[in-house]
């Protein structure tokens, strides 16, 4: 997986035809998918947080405590990536909605 693809979204979309109900519904599905993805990032980071804390608190397993710290570090990284991707796609969707509104006003 290319690291650039984690942070980039396409912004080459231009509205050229009349928007129909199917297109609005597709945009709404995309918004909901974006929210589900954010929740998935949060869920994954919480599991890593719990696992990291559990590993750190284990007694007699001093050799693997570094895995707990790695897990806690990954927790922070995953949360940051998830929120960043959510915000970026949300901003892109708002741009699309503005284009739709401008197109509707122009065609009326």
List keywords for this structure.
108 residues; mainly alpha; 3 helices; 79% helix; rod-shaped
Task: Characterise this structure.
There is one protein chain. This protein is mainly alpha-helical and 108 residues long. It has a domain at 65-108. Helix content is 79%, strand content 0%. Helix 2 (21-57) runs antiparallel to helix 3 (65-107). The radius of gyration is 20 Å and the shape is rod-shaped. The mean pLDDT is 84.
Uncertain segments: none
Task: Based on Cα principal axes, name the global outline.
Answer: rod-shaped
Major β-sheet, in short?
none
Strand content: under 5%
Which class best fits the helix and strand makeup? mainly alpha
Q: Count all strands and give the number.
A: 0
Rg for CA atoms: 20 Å
Q: What count of helical segments does DSSP give?
A: 3
